[in-house]
Write a sequence for this structure.
């Protein structure tokens, strides 16, 4: 069965639409909620999702790792990771899953032909593009979009990444996960997506998280 891991924090305004859009899939939804006070966890439970409540904000990366670990434990395959704010469209999930017919990891990519973004400021566009170019150069990765968080994994590929060893957050987490898969010889493909900035709620991304990549990415290369 397909597993879909979705970290949340105060996504009551977006989650019903997201879960409705995923309902037609034969999938188990795993929600990792970091202490939302707007009823997010209750909405997820009522919709039939498996909810992991962590009680407080502990970071996006650790939420993904917690949910992915649970998905592997449950024997789910393949495993999709996506955000809970509707910036990743449920209608794109089948295209990512189809790409796993010829790849081990499918990335939802904003920076390949057919991909793009909506409702972004110029500074945020620049930050994302710079982050990918910076990581591509330092790590030698032939990937157009390294900072995106919309991915579909074959379970064996995700298990091979060794989630227990992942320590980075934010953009750096997304880079590290893809880098680990590439370094282990797994085939990666990019699927064009249109990334739409959230319409409800507040973005969790910050310059502090983004700038973490400036020192984490070189560490990845140094560690090999």
């Amino acid at each position: 069965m397909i597993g879909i891991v979705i970290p949340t924090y105060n996504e009551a305004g977006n989650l019903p639409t997201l879960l409705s859009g995923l309902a037609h899939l034969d999938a188990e939804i795993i929600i990792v909620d970091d202490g939302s006070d707007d009823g997010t966890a209750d909405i997820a439970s009522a919709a039939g999702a498996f909810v992991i409540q962590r009680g407080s904000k502990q970071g996006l990366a650790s939420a993904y790792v917690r949910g992915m670990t649970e998905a592997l434990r449950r024997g789910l395959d393949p495993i999709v990771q996506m955000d809970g704010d509707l910036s990743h469209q449920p209608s794109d999930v089948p295209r990512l899953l189809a790409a796993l017919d010829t790849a081990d990891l499918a990335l939802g990519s904003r920076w390949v032909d057919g991909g793009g973004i909506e409702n972004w400021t110029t500074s945020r566009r620049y930050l994302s593009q710079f982050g990918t170019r910076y990581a591509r150069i330092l790590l030698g990765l032939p990937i157009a979009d390294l900072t995106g968080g919309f991915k579909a994994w074959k379970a064996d590929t995700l298990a091979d990444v060794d989630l227990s060893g992942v320590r980075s957050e934010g953009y750096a987490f997304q880079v590290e996960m893809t880098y680990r898969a590439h370094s282990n010889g797994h085939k990666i493909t990019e699927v064009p997506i249109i990334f739409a900035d959230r319409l409800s709620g507040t973005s969790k991304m910050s310059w502090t998280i983004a700038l973490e990549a400036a020192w984490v990415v070189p560490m990845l290369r140094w560690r090999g």
User: Anything to note?
Assistant: The CA atoms of residues 61 and 168 lie 7 Å apart. The chain has one domain: 2-223. Helices lie at 15-22, 40-46, 60-73, 93-99, 122-139, 155-160, 170-183, 207-223.
